[in-house]
């Protein structure tokens, strides 16, 4: 039995820290931190991010219908947090942080050049959910820095060092070591 009820809350451990890249109507790059997001389909490969209507990113997503998701490493915790503190209406976040907006190869949206992993996405659909709109994007390409690729040619989580978020404590965390191989470590229980 669980000892304490928290009631209905936005708790899911951990939340990924995703940086959504878009251009505004004048072509200025913008980036916003989102923790309400994740993979939502494997065929087609798709990701969902939820954004409030008051955000500049919401307006950009509705107009542009293309976006990127940059996955920051713990090396850029300050800059990433800044992307979530100020509005793209008031600040040029890339200029303020010194990070580099890079135009996507397949979409008309910027990504953060210094971040190790980038998803280029085209909007498939939107879903209105309370105070958020969920934007579902087809993943057209995933780009990675060479330094975060393992010997097997796949992304290495320990090299990427992504940031996780705790929404109740409003704190960021890093990821630890590998615990075991998925679809394998539990085989000893199977009858």
From TrEMBL:
Keyword Transcription regulation in record: no
Name of this protein: Flavin reductase family protein
Cofactors: FMN
EC number: 1.5.1.-
Database matches in SMART domains: Flavin_Reduct
Record flagged with keyword Flavoprotein: yes
Any one Gene Ontology molecular-function term assigned to this protein's record: FMN binding
Similarity annotation: Belongs to the flavoredoxin family.
Organism per entry: Methanoculleus receptaculi
InterPro entries on file: Flavin_Rdtase-like_dom, Flavoredoxin, Split_barrel_FMN-bd
Keywords, ordered alphabetically: Flavoprotein, Oxidoreductase
Domain Flavin reductase like: 12-165
